[in-house]
Amino acid sequence: MSARRAWIERPVPGSSPGLAVSRQCVLAGVTRSWVYAWRGEDVVGEADLTLLRLIDAEYTRRPFYGTRRMVVCLREQGHVVNRKRVQRLMRVLGLAGMAPGPATSTPHPAHKVYPYLLRGLAITRPNQVWSTDITYIRLAHGFAYLVAVIDWYSRRVLSWRLSNTLEASFCVDCLQDALRVHGTPAIFNTDQGSQFTSEAFTGVLLGAGIAISMDGRGRALDNIFVERLWRSVKYEDIYLKGYATLPELLLGLCEYFAFYNEVRPHQALGYRTPAAVHRSGVGGGAQIVDRFGSVAGPSPAALRSAGDGPATEPGQRQGAAFEATSAA
């Protein structure tokens, strides 16, 4: 059987097409999955690449979409797919809808989970609240993971790291870099992912005397500013440039985050840059309104993402509305 796998030839781009891999496997009496596994390749056909791009883009816009809604979205764009195929492709991307459900945002069973501290809190100064999150990035040849630390008052990206694995070490390194360069926040917010509930990560925060806040399960908007950052990064840089390798992505993101912090005007900041607002302590701010409680002080303006229009996210019905102040 092992010898038969060596008979299978992959088509070479630019050459005349030969027998399809699926047909070669039938003639050789082997399965496609066995051939791909032997070569260390993902079982993703050429026809799936377009669907992967569409799923990636749609999930960035609406991370609360599960496989059922994703099927409807793809069909509306003219692609005949069933849920089983979408489930397989979302597994390739490492995606799952953020709505509450079985095994969604499940922390490591041995890790402590901390309460969410930001509901009803007015963000009035830089370094009052920081938060972090991880997003996946699809490359031409594989995937990478990006983690970033952001200041809620100014929307400034304080630190970021890339990795080809989801181990906690690159998240800890990103956190330590932000603390070393920008000082210590009062509160640090994360989701309940195992990287952020690990003792290695929480130990750095506790050792620095920082209060730990964690999103509620299934509440995609509890970390709204990082979610908006991912949308900006993907639509303004990654989708446009189509990075092929990790080194290309690293260089591209170095340029983009410098642009994002120092050049790009943000509508939510009165068209100032995050770096300018973070340095001056004027022009930023946010307030997390608890719909089941009361918040003192004047009613702020509707939340706007960094450079986008008013947010009207369905997830607001989960119990908290997000609003931003214009602390001029």
Kindly describe this structure.
This protein is an alpha+beta fold and 328 residues long. It has three domains: 2-39, no CATH class; 46-93; 122-324, Nucleotidyltransferase, domain 5 (2-Layer Sandwich). The protein is built from twelve helices and nine strands. It has helices at residues 2-5, 21-28, 32-39, 46-61, 67-76, 83-93, 169-182, 194-197, 199-207, 224-241, 246-262, 274-280, and strands spanning 122-123, 129-139, 142-151, 157-163, 187-190, 211-214, 286-290, 301-302, 320-324. It has a five-stranded mixed sheet with strand order 4-3-2-5-6, with helices on both faces. Strands 1-7-9-8 form a four-stranded antiparallel sheet, with no helix packed on it. β3 (142-151) and β4 (157-163) form a beta hairpin. α5 (67-76) packs across α6. The radius of gyration is 22 Å and the shape is elongated. The protein starts with a helix and ends with a strand. Mean pLDDT is 77; it is low at 38-43, 99-106 and 294-328.
Mean pLDDT: 77
CATH H-level superfamily title of the largest domain: Ribonuclease H-like superfamily/Ribonuclease H
Strand content is 15-25%
Strand order of the largest sheet: 4-3-2-5-6
CATH topology of the largest domain: Nucleotidyltransferase, domain 5
| DSSP strand count | 9
CATH structural class of the largest domain: Alpha Beta
Tally of individual domains: 3
Query: Which of globular, elongated, flat, extended, rod-shaped describes the shape?
Result: elongated
CATH architecture of the largest domain: 2-Layer Sandwich
Tell me the helix content: 25-40%
Our measurement of the CA-to-CA distance between the termini, rounded to an integer number of angstroms, reads: 72 Å
Structural class of the helices, strands and pairings? Answer: alpha+beta
What ranges have pLDDT less than 50 throughout 5 or more consecutive residues?
A: 38-43, 99-106, 294-328
Helix-strand string: HHHHHHEEEEHEHHEHHHEEE
Number of helices: 12
Tell me about the largest β-sheet: 5 strands, mixed
